[in-house]
User: Which sequence fits this backbone?
């Protein structure tokens, strides 16, 4: 095969791969949100910003009524692992949170999602039910990976999900733990802050979540 023919075949193969990625990427029902892998990637620019002010977000926060974000507990070990020192915004009140310090000392499930992601919408209520079942044995926190904070609050209110939530428009959490560029992703953290598992899959039931936590963190709930 000539060099020019090989180049044409390589280009054709690349086009097919890109088309397949776009075809299978989760889509939401909001026309303003990302609808493809390229849109998802491009939505995380060098300095993504929210599209609403604190004043505009205030009534949405009231309606969502999210649980307070976790805070460092007295006597907890110093934060370690890839999230130590990583700062995110609490969806409930807009406060800055050192995520590594906030979850130190407790097994944690971080759920990475976006308001436009259909599998995320199916999974989030199960995470709410699991958190209620687990009580204080496991901390469950949602991490919204899109600049549109208002849309996240609206979606969570619609789903009846009151879990503590973080706003992470630059996907810093995903980058820190090495998560793939898909959604949803659940990140299981041991009490010492180390990453026990990164699961790029939607959960279909509360029992599936419980099984994953038991397998990777050794916590039964």
Assistant:
């Amino acid at each position: 095969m000539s060099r020019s023919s090989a180049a044409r075949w390589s280009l054709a193969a690349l086009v097919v791969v890109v088309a397949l990625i776009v075809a299978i990427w989760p889509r939401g029902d909001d026309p303003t949100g990302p609808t493809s892998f390229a849109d998802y990637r491009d939505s995380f620019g060098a300095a993504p910003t929210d599209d609403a002010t604190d004043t505009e977000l205030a009534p949405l926060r009231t309606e969502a009524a999210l649980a307070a974000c976790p805070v460092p507990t007295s006597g907890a070990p110093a934060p370690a692992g890839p999230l130590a020192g990583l700062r995110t915004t609490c969806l409930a009140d807009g406060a800055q949170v050192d995520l590594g310090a906030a979850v130190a000392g407790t097994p944690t499930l971080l759920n990475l999602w976006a308001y436009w992601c259909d599998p995320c919408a199916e999974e989030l209520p199960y995470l709410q039910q699991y958190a209620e079942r687990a009580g204080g044995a496991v901390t469950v926190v949602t991490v919204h990976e899109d600049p549109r904070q208002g849309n996240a609050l609206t979606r969570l209110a619609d789903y009846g999900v009151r879990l503590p939530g973080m706003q992470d428009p630059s996907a810093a959490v995903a980058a820190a733990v090495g998560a793939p560029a898909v959604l949803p992703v659940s990140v299981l953290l041991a009490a010492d802050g180390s990453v026990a598992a990164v699961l790029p899959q939607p959960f279909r039931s509360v029992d599936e979540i419980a099984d994953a936590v038991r397998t990777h963190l050794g916590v039964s709930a």
Notes: The longest helix spans residues 3-24. The longest strand covers residues 108-113. Strands lie at 87-90, 96-98, 108-113, 139-144, 165-167, 185-189, 195-199.
